[in-house]
Amino acid sequence: MHRRAFLASTLAATLVPQSLAAQSTERARRIGWVTAQTAASLAPYVEAFRQGLSERGYNEGQTLTIEYRYGEGIDGRVPELARELTRLPVDLIVAQGTAALELPPLDLPVVFVISADPVSSGFADSLAKPRGNKSGLTLMAVELNGKRLDLLKEIVPDLRRVAIVGNPEHPGAHLERGFSEETGRQLGLRIDYFPTETQDKLADSLARMADDPPQAISILADGFAIQNRKTIIDFAMSKHMPAISGWPIFAQSGALFTYGPKLTESYRRLAYYVDRILKGANPADLPIEQPTTFEFTINMRTAKTLNLTIPSSLLASADRVIE
Q1: pLDDT tens digits, residue range 54-113?
Q2: Which pTM was predicted?
């Protein structure tokens, strides 16, 4: 009987698939997530990132652990949070938003998702050639600034003058401004640029607009604009002018419409970079990607308040209509 049991166990061992044997010995990986923002503000995007990892075969709690560090909007916290992650240690760090710009020098790979231009940020010589130990995704696609002006012109046919509100310290903002101005010339629009890198500059810009109001405001999306979106949009509404931007949070806060990257898809795509690097890829060999999927959100409550008629063709093409 003992001999039979030994033979049976030996046979069973030889029949175990190699993949299962590999899974049983594979080291669980640990990655770090660092951001200057709050957990609540990023919840849907973190969930999209986790879904992307699951789709690539990672099982949180078993084959993968994610260590989250949030700056909670407090200036200067990112460097220490990143160093804290390296002491755990982690296999790589995922840096979200401005955290990618604030990281101290690190000896481990970094995957980033930023709204800035990677070349202007110093992360790359070109999108195809990341520098050093960093690669990932940029949410900036400067041509979308022109698309938004095209859409606005459809809604407001007599549009002649638009104010651009943007943070000149945001890497790549000069590219967005330039593309907006070029599209404005093509559409016969006067584009006035208002730099708003501080609260004082924003207050001064809004005061100047109040003295000589434009017909609409186009908000360049970045962290400062998000933090101050209510101030900008409330001002626009008080002057009976539409505000537009790139990310849905602006439409949800009262902007007439937003057109830009589908952010959940971009965050899901982050998992691709994590997977490649954990499997041995060098970040410098992974080209930086721009958005490929976009979403169009219209706020009909705002349209009605401003007595604007949204063409049926635009309503039909919208991904979301806020009633």
Answers
A1: 999 999 999 999 999 999 989 899 999 999 999 999 999 999 999 999 999 999 999 999
A2: 0.87
- Taking the C-alpha atoms of residue 33 and residue 47, their distance in angstroms, rounded to an integer, is 13
Structure tokens at 223: 């962290």
Write out the two tokens for 201. Answer: 């500059």
Is the torsion defined by CA of 316, 237, 223, 73 positive or negative? negative
Residues 269, 137: Cα–Cα separation, whole Å: 8
Alpha carbon distance 301, 152 (integer Å): 16
Joined tokens for residue 12 = 């069973």
Start-end of H helices in the chain: 2-15, 18-25, 39-55, 78-87, 99-102, 143-155, 173-187, 199-211, 223-227, 229-238, 248-252, 263-278, 300-305, 312-317
29-35/92-96 β-pairing: parallel
The phi, psi pair for 221, rounded to 5°, reads -80, 125
End-to-end CA distance of the chain: 75
Domains of the chain: 28-138+264-285 (3.40.50.2300), 143-260+294-322 (3.40.50.2300)
- The Cα–Cα gap between 45 and 138 comes to 14
Residue labelled with tokens 């240690």: 89
Q: How are beta strands 243-245 and 124-126 bridged, if at all?
A: unpaired
Among 135, 137, 116, 112, CA closest to 124: 135
Q: Give the span between the Cα atoms of 184 and 153, in whole angstroms.
A: 10
Q: Which residue has the tokens 């995922």?
A: 94
Pairwise CA distance, residues 49 & 316, whole Å: 29
| 82: its two tokens | 């990143």
- For 76, other C-beta atoms within 10 Å of its C-beta total 9
